[in-house]
């Protein structure tokens, strides 16, 4: 996997750029800007570059060795500097996200913005949505991100303990994260059920992908929504579900799931995986200088992916919310081009008349 694919030799542009986050968007931007000749520093809180490609997406989709080879090419051929286990965050603010346990150094966002000619924020979505139901904090209730991330850590030898195991695992959701979690759960030998509040026709992962899982042995349960996690002595023992029916379309254009009163039932399970979406994780809590995040925690940018601070740009899932690797990669390239244009203009010498 080549991130610096647009050039054979480094160009002659001048200027220093910081990329915060080494996931798909960040690495795409790094490759473009390093090829142009800029000095590029990359700050990444995890031990390796790649983001979700390295630490969440199954290796049969994107093999870690390919990501590592691409990063080594950036480092060795284009002189990109990587600062791993380093989290960038706004001064006086704090927040703990998935992956932060590896952080050995915190660099203040204020200092990064001051030091470099331009900055691209590409910190992705390293937090997960919850259901907001009773019992959600019970043992053996994980998000899909937690489950997949900790499996990858174990497989890479970064932790000694496997993630919690179960004999009957329920995955809540029907997006790609749910699919990946269900497939990994199936590999452990567990009975796996996917529970979704709409039908297979509305599943974000697509009918074909869900049917592939069903052929592998995953049960797909439609039109059910969790109302409670049943626990004994702190451990999950069951998942209470309410049956749903489809109503009028919502803002997404899909039929709205409508609860059927009195239809609750309990599904026995010893491990619940919540795959109901990830949340953007910008390098600040709500606001930094004039840069703000919306209610969904997405960084506000203009059509040039520029924030309210002229020299600070943002790209990838931290702008769009959870998306596909290709979309994040493409937006990283766009941000890099806009940064190049911005620096080419702003760093031109001004001559007195």
Brief descriptors of the model:
about 350 residues, alpha/beta, FAD/NAD(P)-binding domain, 2 domains, five-stranded parallel sheet, 9 helices, about 25% strand
How does this structure look, described?
This protein is of the alpha/beta class. The protein has 2 domains: 16-126 and 278-346, FAD/NAD(P)-binding domain, CATH 3.50.50; 130-274, 3-Layer(bba) Sandwich (FAD/NAD(P)-binding domain). The chain has 9 helices and 20 strands. It has helices spanning 24-36, 52-55, 64-78, 109-115, 144-155, 176-187, 207-216, 317-320, 325-346, and strands spanning 16-20, 39-43, 81-83, 86-89, 105-108, 118-121, 127-128, 141-143, 168-172, 191-195, 219-221, 224-232, 235-249, 255-259, 265-268, 271-274, 278-279, 287-288, 291-292, 312-314. The strands form 6 sheets. A 5-stranded parallel beta sheet has the order 3-2-1-6-20, covered by helices on one side. A 5-stranded parallel beta sheet has the order 8-16-9-10-11. The N and C termini lie far apart (50 Å). Residues 16-332 form the FAD/NAD(P)-binding domain. This is Glutamate synthase. It comes from Ignisphaera aggregans. InterPro entries: FAD/NAD-bd_sf, FAD/NAD-binding_dom.
Quick structural overview:
The protein is an alpha/beta fold and 353 residues long. The protein has two domains: 16-126 and 278-346, FAD/NAD(P)-binding domain; 130-274, FAD/NAD(P)-binding domain (3-Layer(bba) Sandwich).
